[in-house]
Amino acid sequence: MTDHSLQTRLLHSDYKFDPHTGAVSVPIQQASTFHQQDFDNPGTYDYSRSGNPTRKALEDTIAGLENGTEGFAFASGMAAISTSFMLLSQGDHVVISEDVYGGTFRMINDVLQRFGIDHTFVDMTDLHAVATSIQPNTKLVYIETPSNPTLKITDIRAVSKLAKANDCWTFVDNTFMTPALQRPLELGADLVLHSATKFIAGHSDVVAGLAATHQPDLAERLSFLQNSFGSILGAHDCWLVLRGLKTLHCRLAQSSASAAKIAEELTKHPLIEEVFYPGFSSHPGNSIHSYQSEGAGAILSFRLRDEDAVRQFTNAVELPVYAVSLGAVESILSYPARMSHASMPKEEREKRGITDGLLRLSVGLEKPEDLIEDFQQALKQIQPYSFLTNRRVNHELT
Ligand SMILES: *Cc1c(COP(=O)(O)O)cnc(C)c1O
């Protein structure tokens, strides 16, 4: 099946029908334990924490799509990420993207630190900075590209090469791109991670995480950790993710085309100070992104003046849901300073460009012209700056 395009493989895998009944949907195997035929031959499955047929279908599917050999399904993206970090030991050091997902930032800082696993945050777009951050005890370089929410692009191939030369693993959080647009294992990464809650499942109805690798040693150790922590995805949720995957390609194609249109329109508006979108030829990472990915994706960010402008805009906008999360059929507008990056101290946020005026948009399947019209009416509701400043200054004086 691997000679077909990914678009076709999403629908025609080894799991396209159930060999026992012909059912054109993976059966949900709602069992915690499995009868063992005899003492010496326990069978493939014994207990669902260690293995479950529905989960196996999803795990094989993500492994195939990422061009890996083994996949793992976890209870959430954070469960996949934090379990993978347990491949490290006390005394090890991690080099990590400075604009990493807020939950990963929190886990690295507040949890791993307590277990004696040290880290250095770097600007991953700067290869020299990455090289000089690697220490004798560095075991892992951790990448997110495009990054969240400022959409900086890291050269996966170059960083993986640098990591390998220093005997370090490279892990890539591929949530924003999915294997439909970017396959880090083909570029030299050792492990790819996903919040399947986002584009992979795609319907804002399940929380899930995935991992895939092509290295037997890494797979064996991760399988041991998954079973040890029990951070597994349940059978029903595995089935929801498998169903979502079938439409991944067409959802991303439509949403990405709309995101390109919307990003372009937003740059024309005087109240928008900056638009972040890796599809712009002016984006500093554009050529690397075009080399390593098959599209710019469906996420963009834009900067308004300040928190007041964000409040007025988000109160007026009608179509997108105003929510945490991304990668769904409906467009989602989020405010990183108060949502995904609320756990990051303000000065850390601002260092990373996550100012109080920054909004992130995950484009869904609405007609793009309707979204553009909605944004334009909402932008009209933003009050002129001088009026607000004067009022605030007067208030402070009284
Ligand atoms: C949402 C997200 C996560 C965390 O995934 P959960 O499923 O919410 O645990 C990790 N990385 C990125 C880039 C995300 O967007």
From TrEMBL:
InterPro entries: Cys/Met-Metab_PyrdxlP-dep_enz, Cys_met_metab_PP, PyrdxlP-dep_Trfase, PyrdxlP-dep_Trfase_major, PyrdxlP-dep_Trfase_small. CDD domains: CGS_like. The keyword Nucleotidyltransferase does not apply. Keywords: Amino-acid biosynthesis, Lyase, Methionine biosynthesis, Pyridoxal phosphate, Transferase. PROSITE patterns: CYS_MET_METAB_PP. GO terms for molecular function: cysteine-S-conjugate beta-lyase activity; pyridoxal phosphate binding; transferase activity. Transmembrane segments: none annotated. The modification N6-(pyridoxal phosphate)lysine is found at K198. It is an enzyme of class 4 (lyase). GO terms for cellular component: cytoplasm. GO terms for biological process: methionine biosynthetic process; transsulfuration. Its EC number is 4.4.1.13. Its cofactor is pyridoxal 5'-phosphate. NCBIfam families: PRK08064.1. Belongs to the trans-sulfuration enzymes family. This is cysteine-S-conjugate beta-lyase. The lineage of its organism: Bacteria, Bacillati, Bacillota, Bacilli, Bacillales.
